Amino acid sequence: METKVQPVNEALDPIKREDKQLNRPQTPLIVAGLVVTAILMVYLLFTQVAMQPILLILGLLLGYTLFHARFGFTSAFRRLASVGNGQAVRAHMVMLAVAVTLFAPILAFGVSFFGTGASGYVAPVGVSVILGAFLFGIGMQLGGGCASGTLYAVGGGRTVMLFTLLFFIVGSTIGAYHLPFWTDETPSFEPISLATSTGLGYGGAWIVSLALFGFIAWITLVIERKKQPPRMAPLPKTAGWKRIFRGSWPLFAAAIGLAVLNALTLMTRGQPWGITSAFALWGSKTAQIFGFDVASWGYWQGANAEVLQSSIFTDSTTVLNLGVILGAFLASAAGGLFKFSKLTKGNVAASIIGGLLMGYGARLAFGCNIGAYFGGIASFSVHGYVWGLLALAGTFVALYLRPLFGLSVPKPKDSFC
């Protein structure tokens, strides 16, 4: 009996492929999204520094890009681990190659739009990063999305991701409370930068990085030749200029776009794109309302103390996150794809556990798939590579846990032969 081969992204993507073809634009939703965006923009223009409105625009573009290409980190790792398809991971390598090319001169000369200087995400490598990234890898496969995936899936109307986001915030808050233990009481090396810790300089680190990306891409091709997985099914698209606003974008085009937007973020706020520090802030401020003495936590000492006491709209990461959600919402409405998804006991339970693991893991690992993996590697930090390896290890473990919650894990011998 012939086994039907199911396209990889149709079986594994966190956003279900119910969009076999583009629908008419959801005009009322587009108008509503634009109104909310305009109100937020005006508020930022009149109450915050000039940087914040620019970051909102960058967040919108990031969310729009993520949704249009369905550019995932969770699904990329799961495709490679479950069926050996490395197409999305190779897109990651393109993204990282463009990012290090842009980051190198920015970091070398410390240039920025607002004169604040520019510094990358370079963090220690130790027990906290190893455990945190591993937990995050499990969590993103149970929760149905990584940090960026959670935001753009919420913007796209995937209802269960609201549970993932809520418990992502809870886990990140608990992680912030526990972080001093993990950083002070467990072993770790000093932060290692390929550029500044090795004597290579940014030019040498750039060459080494490109070689590593090429090597990783080659490994994915070797795996594909061995496993012969199916190709990713194409997403619905339109022709001509309309494709800019509706329909899917090629993965590699989105990879380049995300790298450019991350570099612009670096030059705007002096740091690369990040997501999860805002979750710790939102959760900690909520905990204060319920009487917790959050200000006494080690995480909120020093430079972070002012962040905790200020409005969330002064936090650049918060503004970026709101932009990503709004950008994904507008992209989904433009394609006629916004609709709430079905909830089950299994996917809600998985989202709760996955959100907790991602939130806690992100704090321990000094970031998520964006701050640690994308931003860390783009900043030439060794901890970014360690994060990627341990998150992939967590993905392999999660493949055995997903069926417990009724989540599918297609196997090559069953569906992909």
UniProtKB/TrEMBL annotation:
The chain crosses the membrane at residues 27-46, 52-73, 94-115, 160-179, 199-223, 244-264, 319-338, 350-374, 380-401. It is found in: Cell inner membrane. The keyword Zinc-finger does not apply. It holds the Pfam family Sulf_transp. Keywords: Cell inner membrane, Cell membrane, Membrane, Transmembrane, Transmembrane helix, Transport. InterPro entries: Sulf_transp_TsuA/YedE. Its main location: membrane. It comes from the Bacteria. GO terms for cellular component: plasma membrane. It is a multi-pass membrane protein. Belongs to the TsuA/YedE (TC 9.B.102) family. PANTHER family: INNER MEMBRANE PROTEIN YEDE (PTHR30574), SULPHUR TRANSPORT DOMAIN-CONTAINING PROTEIN (PTHR30574:SF1). This is YeeE/YedE family protein.
